[in-house]
Specification:
Blueprint (H helix, E strand, L loop, with lengths): L8 H4 L5 H15 L6 E5 L15 E6 L2 H10 L4 E4 L11 E6 L10 H13 L1 E10 L12 E8 L2 E12 L2 E12 L2 E12 L3 H10 L3 E5 L9 E5 L4
Parallel strand pairs: 1-2, 1-4, 2-3, 4-5
Antiparallel strand pairs: 5-11, 6-7, 7-8, 8-9, 10-11
Length: 236
């Protein structure tokens, strides 16, 4: 998925407030987690952007479907355990006190059935009293059809520009990424297509409740228009 751009990912998203978001994650865990342990699973961890701000408090395992992203994460965070797996089907044969799925990675589940399968799998890996935190994507009503987006990263030896035009069909947003990366070796052009599902908040809430989780929805969690969904597994 990010085969050509994984090594540029952290540069492209240099503006991302991982530290501030991680502080909010910590406060939510403190408020809602009822289990006694500190084991955390970061699903769709990417290059591990949140992990440096959480690893002092939690024993973290990172999981991602993209091997190139995991390669970058392992280089950055050699002391962290990373696992290759699909969020719908991974089986780690252990349960966690906290499971997070952040930066709208859940939007790669394109149907209600896929979303339910992922959340069911998360729930199956969650301890009694444990907490699940999922960051959703924007709902369909917030899609702007004429929006053109650009990101520029500027360092003396590396320049990156990414231009994006998005289209919508049903509840699926297709993002057409065009990237120019220039360094001392030359200029590279990369084109990537990413598809993300825009679900209404109610879809998440209904699925999480169906899986037996006490569910809380926080509007505008880390980013405007993107809700955070908390699922608490009550102790038997």
């Amino acid at each position: 998925m990010y085969k050509l751009t994984a090594k540029y990912y952290d540069k492209i998203y240099h503006f991302k407030y991982y530290k501030k978001e991680s502080e909010k994650v910590r406060s939510l865990i403190k408020k809602y987690k009822k289990s006694d342990g500190n084991e955390m699973l970061d699903v769709a961890c990417g290059t591990g952007g949140h992990i440096p701000y959480l690893k002092d408090k939690y024993d973290i395992t990172g999981l991602d479907l993209d091997k190139d992203m995991l390669k970058e994460a392992r280089k950055k965070l050699p002391g962290i355990k990373f696992v290759h797996g699909d969020m719908r089907t991974f089986q780690l044969k252990k349960k966690f006190d906290v499971i997070v799925c952040l930066f709208s990675a859940i939007a790669y589940m394109h149907t209600n059935a896929q979303l339910q399968k992922a959340i069911k799998n998360f729930s199956g890996h969650l301890k009694e009293g444990g907490l699940m935190i999922i960051e959703g994507f924007i709902p369909p009503k917030l899609f702007k059809p004429d929006l053109v987006h650009g990101i520029y990263f500027n360092e003396p030896d590396l320049k990156i520009f990414r231009a994006t035009k998005a289209t919508k069909k049903g509840n699926i947003m297709t993002m057409d990424f065009h990237i120019l990366a220039a360094d001392k070796k030359g200029v590279k052009y990369i084109n990537e297509i990413h598809k993300a599902a825009m679900f209404e908040d109610k879809v998440f809430i209904d699925i999480m409740k169906k899986e037996g989780l006490k569910t809380i929805c926080i509007k505008d969690g880390f980013m405007k228009g993107r809700s955070l969904f908390l699922g608490i597994k009550d102790k038997a």
